[in-house]
Design brief:
The radius of gyration is 19 Å and the shape is globular. The chain has helices at residues 2-17, 349-352; strands spanning 34-45, 50-61, 76-86, 91-100, 106-108, 114-117, 120-125, 128-134, 138-146, 151-152, 158-160, 168-185, 188-205, 211-221, 226-234, 239-247, 253-256, 261-265, 268-270, 277-279, 282-286, 289-295, 301-304, 310-320, 326-333. The chain has a single domain, classed as Beta Barrel (AttH-like fold), CATH 2.40.370. The longest helix is centred in the first third of the chain and has 16 residues, at 2-17. The strands form three sheets. Strands 1, 2, 3, 4, 5, 6, 7, 8, 9, 10, 11, 12 and 13 form a 13-stranded antiparallel β-sheet that branches. Strands 14, 15, 16, 17, 18, 21, 22, 23, 24 and 25 form a ten-stranded antiparallel β-sheet that branches. The chain has a two-stranded antiparallel ribbon with strand order 19-20. With 358 residues, it is mostly beta strands.
């Protein structure tokens, strides 16, 4: 018991005592249990059709004895999700992969920002990013050029996630990326342009035991500003923590704590496949600012039980305030069917992490 308490305290100290430094911290942090590089955005075809997309690479440290003799022991797992919000189909197209980080077949590079499983890849090259994924019924080949400087959340990138200060992460975003490339849907390739948001986050203790999941949104506003907001929901139905980062068009940054960030759920949608019900519309209040969030389409549920064990809603949304100012972004809702358990993240992780790996 004492060893576990010390580990949590040291994890919190490691996050608060470190200084986030870019570009070095774009790479992997294998000493931390959970990490992800997460890209979401809106695309437009030459015909003017709107699509949403998401590409996420997770790295998870698996507890193994250091002296384990097998070169195939799963000390690090790499998980990848890709999704396309396609209004013409009316539901999410989704693909997923999971593999051990070994023998060059999958990994997350500590020296440079590069995560991959086979031919699925997200990497940083010469200050810009690119991603290539090929799922069963769609493929993405996108270049992502930074338009704005990184946005650090919390205190210089130290982002609390709960009432316990040890529940925290290192967290920054690239909130404005110009996208060019192509999308292939059922064998038909189209050139696309658009905009995207990249999150990079790592932690040893992201969630308190009392938390069941989170609501998160990242928004690119039409005036050039950006907004990230989240709340951690508790098992008692209350809010364990909330925070937001707002950068205006002039580049001024304001950080908000739990007392000034409110998610007010609106219309709900029930999945016809899983039966899980999600609030797909919100009124979001951050300080004096209020925004209505509306989905590109309702059915943007991801079933990742084959990889992370989770079922969650993640999709493209529009935002509008009372003055008519607009924006677009992505909304993520976790822990609505069953409490979220992060892969590799505790005593319950064995039932969430698949035992059969490539």
């Amino acid at each position: 018991m004492m060893r576990a308490v010390c580990a949590v305290l040291l994890a919190g100290w490691a996050l608060t005592g470190a200084t986030l430094s870019l570009p070095g911290d774009h790479g992997a942090h294998p000493d931390q249990r959970t990490e992800w590089w997460y890209v979401t955005g809106w695309l437009e075809t030459a015909a003017g059709e709107e699509l949403g997309f998401q590409v996420t690479f997770f790295r998870t440290r698996v507890d193994q004895p250091e002296a384990h003799p097998s070169a195939f022991a799963a000390r690090q797992l790499i998980i990848a999700h890709a999704a396309l919000s396609d209004p013409a189909l009316g539901r999410l197209r989704h693909g997923q992969r999971i593999a051990r980080a070994s023998h060059g077949l999958a990994g997350a590079d500590q020296q440079q920002a590069r995560a991959w499983i086979g031919d699925w890849i997200l990497e940083r090259k010469a200050g810009s990013w690119e991603t290539r994924v090929e799922a069963e019924d769609f493929a993405l080949a996108l270049d992502l050029a930074s338009v704005q400087p990184p946005l650090l959340h919390g205190e210089d990138g130290y982002s609390r996630k709960g009432q316990d200060p040890a529940a925290a992460s290192r967290y920054y975003s690239l909130p404005s990326l110009a996208v060019t490339g192509s999308v292939t849907i059922e064998g038909r390739t189209q050139e696309v342009t658009g905009s995207a948001w990249l999150d990079h986050e790592w932690s040893n203790a992201l969630m308190e035991p009392e938390a069941i999941g989170w609501d998160w949104v990242g928004l690119q506003l039409d005036d050039g500003g950006s907004l990230m907001a989240f709340r951690m929901r508790g098992k008692d139905g209350g809010v364990r923590w909330a925070a937001a980062t707002r950068r205006d068009a002039a580049g001024r940054v304001v950080h908000h704590g739990p007392e000034t960030v409110v998610f007010r759920p609106g219309r709900r949608w029930r999945s016809p496949r899983t039966g899980v019900e999600y609030p797909v519309e919100f009124e979001l209040q951050v300080g004096d600012e209020r925004l209505d969030l509306r989905p590109l389409m309702d059915d943007q549920e991801s079933d990742s039980r084959q990889t992370t064990g989770a079922i969650y809603w993640e999709g493209a949304v529009r935002a509008q305030d009372v003055a008519g100012r607009r924006g677009r972004g992505y909304l993520e809702l976790t822990g609505y069917g069953t409490p979220l358990v992060l892969p590799g993240g505790g005593a319950d992780s064995a039932r969430q992490t698949p035992s059969s790996l490539p």
